[in-house]
Amino acid sequence: MSERLTRIAIVSSDRCKPKKCRQECKKSCPVVKTGKLCIEVAPASKIAFISEELCIGCGICVKKCPFEAIQIINLPKDLDKDTTHRYGPNTFKLHRLPVPRPGQVLGLVGTNGIGKSTALKVLAGKLKPNLGRFNNPPDWQEILTYFRGSELQNYFTRILEDNLKAIIKPQYVDHIPKAVQGNVGQVLDQKDERDMKSELCADLQLNQVIDRNVGDLSGGELQRFAIAVVAVQNAEIYMFDEPSSYLDVKQRLKAAQVVRSLLRPNSYVIVVEHDLSVLDYLSDFICCLYGKPGAYGVVTLPFSVREGINIFLAGFVPTENLRFRDESLTFKVAETPQESAEEIETYARYKYPTMTKTQGNFRLRVVEGEFTDSQIIVMLGENGTGKTTFIRMLAGLLKPDSVEGSDVEIPEFNVSYKPQKISPKFPSTVRHLLHSKIRDSYMHAQFVSDVMKPLLIEQLMDQEVVNLSGGELQRVALCLCLGKPADIYLIDEPSAYLDSEQRIVASKVIKR
């Protein structure tokens, strides 16, 4: 058995705190007891070091560590020679690379934290792959020799010799205002190298916001602006990291058309996307990534679009005969049988009146209606048509300007509201946040099994709220919202920044 498996030890730098513990990992390790230096750590050190060659994979240190900072993972031996990049000792490790082809769109699909953004950085030439040798990184000549005989050899040679220009559209568009000053039109004019500005602005509906400051744009507008900034520039490699978050369905297809319009016979387009329908529409072929988030990631061979998406959903790679997820992701069509009229009578009814609300030159008119409890109602509509405004009026956060039909009051609800844009201002850890906001539910066994376990909140408990990534914030916000006892849960865009697996989990959690 030991010949076939190779081990990686991951020590989380956020969690490992040798000053606060008694070095349980080192004291309990059977290899250390025989006198070998398998785990090296002292009270003064920053982080524990685990030697992967000496480790026997007993997993005792994993259980003993009070902060749950250690993961020991067995990998197939044949992956060992395929290591592309490793950040440092006991850190994340990426195996293989996706293979871009000129004149085609390559789609990447996989969960969060599995190395898609790392792969993009390597392919853009922004990160030099060290082939897993972080102590003495190889020079480019060695790297080219390593990739010889594959399409990647030509690709890297072109990057080195012809100075291919690569542009990445970043994943988190809400960080753009911190880096870019000025109004939308000016920024696009500065970057415009292909004289495409007017066409792109029409395609991406940016003409309404052309005079606005970048800092005043909403999430969807920022996303379209970011896509436009990449598309007006002249480059050989275009990379889009999640081009569809914050966009509505119509805009997603428009954005996809813009991305496809960048194809030229000698240019590469690479897209990372969690919305599988957009990915299907956009790509010519697909590489899946599997592994363990934050520990290691493996890139599969390229598949055709249909095959690639089905492999990702099934959780099984036939070419490597490998199952990377316990259950396949399925979409059930109708779970709830039609409820009888008597059942519906027993539900509490909430009515709301016809109301209007004007904000600036935008006017929203709501026709009166009603809803019952134990229902999930989905609101569909384009961005900027007032869905969030309507939700906030129901929540009582905004007063309507006029109410017609005075016999119906806006009922008093206990409302739990998850906003569309989440900004972390809480100064302490996630545990304190949950403790101060929803103490009763987060102690409650059923809430833990229904909401916290599936959303993997346990792993985030000791992290500072301010340092969480987009997807982690989204999960914490969803947990807070569902933890508050209320008559109505108003949830605005619960799927932004979550990957396909987490979206399905989130929808199941909301259903409960």
Automatic annotation (TrEMBL):
InterPro entries: 4Fe4S_Fe-S-bd (IPR017896), 4Fe4S_Fe_S_CS (IPR017900), AAA+_ATPase (IPR003593), ABC_transporter-like_ATP-bd (IPR003439), ABC_transporter-like_CS (IPR017871), P-loop_NTPase (IPR027417), RLI1 (IPR013283), RLI_dom_1 (IPR034348). The lineage of its organism: Eukaryota, Viridiplantae, Streptophyta, Embryophyta, Tracheophyta. Residues 70-315 form the ABC transporter domain. SUPFAM superfamilies: 4Fe-4S ferredoxins, P-loop containing nucleoside triphosphate hydrolases. It comes from Castanea mollissima (Chinese chestnut). Residues 46-75 form the 4Fe-4S ferredoxin-type domain. This is ABC transporter E family member 2. The keyword Nucleotide-binding applies. Keywords: ATP-binding, Nucleotide-binding. The keyword Nucleotide-binding applies. One of its GO terms (molecular function) is ATP binding.
